[in-house]
Write a structure and sequence with these properties.
The complex is a heterodimer of chains A (about 200) and B (about 250).
Chain A: E1 27-28, E2 49-54, E3 57-63, H1 64-69, E4 73-80, E5 85-96, H2 97-101, E6 110-115, E7 120-124, H3 125-128, E8 134-139, E9 142-143, E10 153-155, E11 168-174, H4 181-184
Parallel strand pairs in A: 1-5, 2-11
Antiparallel strand pairs in A: 2-3, 4-5, 5-8, 6-7, 6-11, 8-9, 8-10
Chain B: E1 13-24, E2 27-33, E3 45-51, E4 57-63, E5 73-77, H1 85-91, E6 97-104, E7 118-123, H2 128-140, E8 146-152, H3 161-164, E9 171-177, E10 188-189, H4 194-200, E11 209-215, H5 216-228, E12 236-241
Parallel strand pairs in B: 7-8, 7-11, 8-9, 9-10, 11-12
Antiparallel strand pairs in B: 1-2, 1-6, 2-5, 3-4, 3-6
The chains are: A mainly beta (about 200), B alpha/beta (about 250).
Chain lengths: ~200, ~250
């Protein structure tokens, strides 16, 4: 039993949000907060590529136009940030990771996403395939803004949002799991919001 | 970019409020009595959990305001539309119990290990982790040159003003007041921009390390400004708040 915080009532009673949509410890925001560890990078689209690598070698690479030419989906999902905010019904236009992986032969079990600015985050391959993950380039009907990860970011909404790497430039295919940026700084290796896996050991 | 040693599981701990100290009309420092605190690094944060009498819980993160080795303190700004901050700044009393876990975060930290010049750029309550860093610097006798550029709405909105007036040798504090300046104000006025950064920031060739903390728009402008002054992006560490509106 948690200790009662004398005089604390909260304000969720005014909310019309279905509580079953809110993972433990999260609150709903209608804004779109920004969190990143460093300056926002600005890579010109003509220099931008999305690359799947293995052992340092390119397995497959797409230019910006080649990504735009792939079939895209309109995706409406709830997103959950480890800093406690959740945003419901966020709307994206995105290419399914399944579409990209359909062009790649591999036997990897994990991926490490890499990004402009040096950010990385690790994911099991099983979490970026099967209709669970996308490469997103529009948000709410407009091109994804740089501070939110534009031109393109990963979208992996079933995990905490740090796994949805901003400014993503590709995935490194790995046979063994390897922690990414926040995962090395004490954040959970997997990051399931429904099990409140915020930090190492959760 | 090696991470810090990962400690064991961060468990929730019920702690008592040891002291409360008003900082400004909307900001309060809360000292916590945390038995068995393992210590923290300057710049880390902790999570707070409140529980209502019907079991409803709310969690938020707050930067730690005290230096490593000091009792744990956080500093909280009341946001009018907030759910947790009005409680912490107005309702909470000495002796009340809250739950915490931490410390959290190993990137936006200053460990005092070298003499690299450090630039701190704070917008509003973004100054909180920098108080921890400045106190850590003073307590460890570090000779690393420190400069804090602190953007506040007005002089009465400056948090830790008395303490910042005596930052210690080798540390200096530069204010800019964005909305209201007292009569005869000789400091800077207006928002932080490229010109002010150029004037205040350590030159890029001294290999400085920069920490920027504040609202998103502030951090975007400052971080981009520092990069254009020649700071390598990986030497500009950012932490943002706001936009969420409900903390």
């Amino acid at each position: 039993m948690n200790p009662i915080s004398r005089g604390f009532h909260g304000r969720r009673r005014e909310s019309d949000v279905d509580p079953k949509r809110i993972p433990p410890g999260q609150y709903v925001t209608t804004d779109f907060p920004v969190l990143s560890a460093g300056p926002t990078p600005h890579t010109p689209l003509e220099n931008w590529t999305f690359t799947i690598k293995q052992a340092g070698a390119t397995v497959k690479s797409w230019t910006w136009q080649e990504i735009l030419d792939l079939p895209a989906e309109d995706v409406t999902v709830d997103i959950h940030c480890v800093t406690k905010w959740s945003k419901l019904d966020s709307r994206w236009r995105a290419v399914s990771m399944d579409t990209l992986f359909a062009q790649v032969e591999h036997e990897a079990r994990f991926v490490l996403a890499f990004c402009d600015g040096g950010y990385t985050t690790n994911l099991p391959l099983a979490d970026v395939t099967g209709g669970q993950a996308w490469l997103a380039y529009d948000y709410d009907g407009s091109p994804l803004r740089p501070e939110h990860g534009g031109p393109a970011r990963l979208l992996v909404p079933h995990l905490y949002f740090w796994k949805s790497a901003k400014w993503v430039r590709g995935l490194e295919l790995l046979a063994a799991d390897e922690p990414g940026f926040w995962e090395r700084y004490g954040y959970n290796n997997y990051g399931d919001p429904w099990r409140e896996q915020r930090y190492a050991g959760d | 970019m090696a991470g810090t040693a990962v400690r064991g599981r961060l468990t929730w701990q019920t702690v008592a409020v040891a002291a409360l100290r008003p900082e400004t009309s909307s900001v309060r420092t809360i000292a916590l009595d945390v038995p068995g605190w393992d210590g923290h690094q300057a710049g880390q944060h902790l999570d707070i959990r409140l529980t209502a009498d019907d079991g409803y819980m709310a969690e938020r993160s707050y930067s730690i305001a005290s230096a490593p080795g000091e009792p744990v303190e956080i500093t909280v700004e009341r946001l009018d539309d907030g759910e947790v901050s009005p409680y912490l700044t107005e309702e909470l009393r000495v002796g009340d119990k809250i739950e915490i876990r931490g410390p959290i975060g190993g990137y936006f930290v200053w460990d005092g290990a070298d003499m690299t010049p450090v630039l701190l750029v704070a917008g509003g309550s973004g100054v909180v982790p920098f108080r921890s860093m400045l106190r850590h610097r003073a307590r460890t006798g570090s000779a690393a040159p420190f400069r804090l550029l602190y953007s506040a709405r007005s002089l009465p909105d400056v948090i830790y003003r008395t303490e910042l007036d005596m930052p210690g040798a080798g540390a200096d504090i530069v204010y800019t007041l964005t909305r209201q300046q007292p009569p005869g104000w000789a400091g800077h006025s207006g928002r932080v921009d490229a010109e002010l950064l150029q004037e205040v920031a350590w030159p890029g060739d001294r290999q400085p390390l920069a920490y920027v903390c504040g609202p998103t728009a502030f951090v975007e402008i400052v971080a981009a400004g520092l990069v254009s002054l020649g700071y390598p992006p990986d030497r500009v560490k950012t932490e943002r708040y706001g936009g969420a509106g409900a903390t």
